[in-house]
Design goal:
- Helices cover about 65% and strands about 5% of the residues.
- It is mostly helical.
- The chain has one domain: Heme Oxygenase, Chain A.
- The two termini are about 15 Å apart.
- The relative contact order is 0.22.
- Bound molecules: fe (ii) ion (2 copies).
């Protein structure tokens, strides 16, 4: 598809950059590029102006809300506890401080799981995640993480992807979730979001630490791209299921070799 036909956000695919272009970035600049890219996508996916509201039967809404909350509980467990636990096993013996930060993240994420499980129970739903029929796109998100074998690539695909996307979900302005979820659920999201800056900082620090060569940067960029592609599909689908229709094309990654991050079109 030609860029002009898409009409949506097109994020630069950094994994296509050659060694010279990636080598121009110092580790901090590279981490900033990944952060900005995930945030741009998050803002687009959750921007209220990209959706129009649809009528939903109240019983259908309740059923879909229950499914959404079950999905959220599943995500807190799989992305929030299992992936950081793998990162701990992949770090070296001299990285105790980072392992402890990851362990603290796991503690936070167990609490997040319980927040969503409680809301599922309140609605009379099955809260046990072992019984959750995970959608294909959700499993794809987890598969992207399972296929990574370094703590830094996992950071790019987790704390520096999904957690950045979550960080826009409690915004006051232009937030589609505020049109779809009631005050009680939004308060729960706000409570959870208060923990996320520390998790995103773990991602930032792991990305900076391991952005030593163009090859390492490319692997992290690719991990983030694969995860975000699956996450965009999952999140747009579940936003629409709660009672709206997306009116702008979903974000895509675009290969434009060695482009500047400032040259992105919107
Ligand atoms: Fe969480
Ligand atoms: Fe988190």
């Amino acid at each position: 598809m030609k860029p002009a036909d898409h009409g949506g956000l097109r994020a630069a695919r950094f994994s296509d950059w050659d060694d010279d272009r990636l080598g121009e970035c110092d580790p901090r600049e590279f981490a900033d590029l990944l952060h900005r890219r995930a945030l741009d996508i998050a803002e687009d996916v959750y921007h209220a102006g990209n959706y129009e509201m649809a009528e939903l039967d109240p019983a259908v809404y309740r059923e879909r809300l229950t499914f959404y909350l079950r999905r959220r509980a599943w995500g807190e467990c799989y992305f929030g506890t299992l992936t950081p636990a793998r990162q701990i096993t992949l770090l070296g013996a001299d990285e105790a401080a980072m392992k402890l930060r990851l362990a603290r993240q796991i503690k936070d994420e167990v609490r997040h799981h319980d927040v969503f499980a409680y809301e599922v129970k309140r609605l009379g739903g099955e809260w046990r995640i072992a019984h959750f029929p995970a959608p294909r796109t959700l499993l794809r998100m987890y598969e992207v993480q399972l296929a990574r074998s370094s703590a830094a690539e996992l950071a790019a695909a987790n704390q520096y992807s999904g957690e950045i996307v979550l960080s826009v979900q409690d915004r006051e302005e232009d937030n589609v979730l505020r049109m779809l979820l009631d005050e009680r659920i939004m308060t729960a999201l706000e409570d959870i979001e208060a923990d996320e800056p520390a998790h995103i900082a773990i991602g930032r620090d792991l990305v900076r630490q391991y952005a030593r060569t163009p090859g390492e940067m490319r692997a992290m960029a690719a991990a983030q791209e694969l995860f975000l592609e699956a996450q965009i599909a999952q999140h747009v689908s579940e936003i629409q299921a709660l009672g709206c229709r997306r009116v702008r094309a979903a974000p895509v990654f675009e290969s434009r070799a060695n482009d500047s991050p400032d040259s992105r079109d919107r």
